Every structure is written in structure tokens, then in C-alpha cells.
Amino acid sequence: MIIADRKPLEELQEMIEPYDNIMLVGCKGCVTVCNAGGLKEVQILASTLRIARKNQGRPIQIEERVLERQCDPEYVEQLRDTCEQFDAVFSMACGVGPQFLSEAYPNQRFFPAVNTTFMGGATQHGMWEERCAGCGNCITHFFDGMCPIARCSKSLQHGPCGGSAGGKCEVSKDIVCIWDLIVRKKTEQGRLEDLRKYWAAKDWRTSRDGGPRRSVREELVK
Amino acid sequence: MSDNGYKSGSNLEKVLKAGHFAFTGECGPPKGANVEHLNEKMAPLRDVVDAINVTDNQTAVVRMSSKAASALMVQAGLEPNFQMVCRDRNRIAMQSDILGAYALGIRNMLCLSGDHQQFGNHPESKNVYDLDSMQLIALTKKMRDEGKFLNEEEIDEPPKMFIGAASNPFGDPTEFRVYRLANKIDAGADFIQTQCIYNMPRFRDFMKRAVDMGLTERAFILAGVTPMKSAGMAKYMAKFVPGMDVPPELIKRIEGAGKGKMAEEGIKFAIEQIEEFKEMDGVAGVHLMAIEWEHKVPEIAERAGVLPRPKVD
Asked: I need a labelling partner for B110 at 20 to 30 A (CA). Which of A54, A86, B29, B234 fits?
């Protein structure tokens, strides 16, 4: 799923500063699962901002909404009746949300309430880690289920670099050296020879380097 | 290979192919456009080393470009070993820089991944890593031997580089390091310069494996030496430099020399190492990285008995 973190309160307070009546819209997709922008987070953030503004002597009205998804026009359409009644709208969805909302309601101003960080999963309760870089050409099967593009700090196809120490990446002790894990797994499974293979330079056109991407399913397009 | 039988015909290649024990040095370009400063740093290395590594924004700190500093060395009649990292260039810039470097008279090139920018003075920057060091080695070889760019287009006057790569015998996972070295040699490395060696028993094991695998028959391996200036430096390297193995006995030895004598003890250890490398099976030379201590290199070379440097025509 897509992982996001709520923006710092100070930044959000600065964003809402000019407004007295806003809508805060959550999303029931990824950001609900990673506890960044679902119903609960919408309620908490709305209350926090209300209290902060009340203490400043300038109360603010905040309408709380949560859409099924903000990355689908069908659900975005559900704001049609109310959206433009507010001074501004804050989206707690990933970066797709404020953009789909802006496209649907060109006269309204939209603000992101979260920072979208990466594609990953929960490694334990309350902790998420990156697993996919969306390069558009999956090669994880060659590396025993681990992606060096997303998980090596240098995206090396022939790792580990000289900075791998004690299973950790040279960038930070909090980052696992994925190449250390790949080598260990290949060794354990008697497939170390796989790592004697040379990988030709990667074609990055399927990644962001080919420009913004589009995926078309002909059978579904009307 | 060219008509004279050399891949690039660099001095380093000639010295190694003639069977001499090679001795290379290193020079970090200045943090500015100060050519005088560069001249001061490279001057002590004249006639003392076979080639001088010119670092490419090492530790991700911005410095004069390695290509420009290498070209200034060529102009001054010294031989550079032009370092290129994958961190800052995509394949377009890499190929362009290889052509440019060759046009400027540069004949040795060391292909590296590069320290992550997180360590440097612009940690906010975006990195590239379009190719990795293995692919950069293969690219440089393809340009030289096939006369083609990565996209198979013909090169008008291919750049003929003597291709180097790095190896860290002490990086983890240790048992894989010799295979990675083999991969680099398969990809096209003509010579290898290792990470600074302090743990001699571990390096002896590593070399034994390299020899057993036949790697030293296929590439020249230069052992990396960095003299310790103080116990503080030794402790810093042990603790903070990833993939560096500094045994506690060595730190104790440097410390034990006492105040004012630690640098000399560091040099003594380096000289002992060089003496052993001269005799070690499979070691073709030494790469001396005297970090911000270039003026000490002539003394170390003299005392290690590697002078005068051979002249090969």
C-alpha cells in the first residue's frame, strides 16, 4: 500500500491560518490502513486544529468527511454538493487525493494534510517499511523475493557495496543492507552462483524516468 | 587492444605488465578552483608513484571535478587515475565524461559506486545510480574494446582506458567479497585497488582465496594502505567508517607510541605492510592513500624501498 505520514501540526496550522471554515477529507484506502488519514485521524486532527485555533481566540469550523477512496472520480463526486461551501479543503489522502479533488473542483483550493512517503507494508504494529520503487519492471524473483532497486540505498544491481557492515547499510544503522540479506539467502539455499551473473544496465523508461506513466486496460476502456 | 599490445598504454599499465611492483598515490582535489593548492598536493608525488588517484567528490563533499583535476595533472606531466562514481552521473554523462577524459590525455580510470550523499555536505541532493560500478566497468570496457556506446552506436575514436575497480575485503558479508571481486574482473577490471587494509590476517585469507580462484592471473591487485596519523584517527576509522576493519591491537600499538610519536608508529606499520605485500602471492602493488598527508609519501616510499620508480617504454 501507499504509506503516508501526517504533516507536522505547525505546518498545518500555518496552512489553515487564512481560513475560518474548512473541510477535512479522509480516505478509506491506504492511509486508513497505515493510520495516517482515515476516519480516526480526521477526527483527531480536526479536534486538535479546532482547539489550537480556539486558544488563539479565532475559532475555526471544520467539517469532517471520509471518502471511500480519493483516487476514484466516482467517490470524489460525492463532495459535489458541499465542496465549494468551504474556504478551503484539506485532504488526508496520499498525494493523489488533493490532485483528483482539484481536478474535480477547479474553483476550490485543496491542501495536503499528509506527506506521502512510499510503497510498503507493516513490518510490525505501527511500523512500515518501503518495499517497492514502482520501477515498472519487477525483478524480485531474481533476488529471492527482495528488491535491490527499492531497498538498496544506491539501487545497486550488483551489491553489496563496500559500505555494508554488520548487515546494515552505510547510510544508517536503521537501514538493513538488502544485499546482505540477498547474499545470505542465496548462500543458505545453495544458489550463490546466481550472484555471479552480470545484469545489463537497467532500462529505466518503465520507471518515472520515462515521464509520468499511464496504465491502460483496453478491455475496460469505453 | 591497441597495436602496441597495451589496452591504454598508461604508465601504470606498463609498470604492471612489465612485472614491477606498482606504487600508486592519491590526491583529493581542492574544495575550490585553487589550482595552486592542487599543484602543492600533487608535487610531492612526482617520480614517487606510478599514477595518482584523483578522487571524485569523495565522501560526497563537493570538490573540483576529478576530470578537471586529472587533466591538470596530465598538463603537469603526472599520470592521473581518474575516479568516477555512479552517484552523480547518468549513462549519458558517464560516456560523455569518459570521452572527455580520454581527449584530455587521461588513460586510467577507477570505476566506483560512490559514497552515498547522506555522508557529504549536500545531503539534500538527489542521487543518480543509473548504472552501478559493475555496469560502469563493463561500459568503459565496451567503449574501449568494441568502440561502441552502450546503445551499440559506433564511437568516433574510442577512449582507451586502463580500467580499475575497488574491492573491500572487509565489507560484509565477508565470504561474498571475493566473488564480488571476481564479478568486477569478469566485467572488465584490469586492476583492483583495495580498501585500506589494517587487519593483515583477514587480508591474507582474502588474497589466498583470490589466488586460488585464479583472479590474480586476470587482474592486478593493488593493496590499499593508509598510514594512521594518530590513535584518534584509528579509533575514528574503526568506529565510524563503514566496512573498515581496524583491529584493537593496532589502535593499542599506535596509542602506545605515546604523544608526538603516534604518526611515526603509523608510518612504521604502513611500511611493514608494504614490505609484506611485496612478498605476498597475488599482490601486484600498493595503493597508498595518505589522506591530507601527501607530503609524507616520498618519505614512506623511500623507507618502504619502492624508489626509484621504474621507467617502462
From this structure: B234
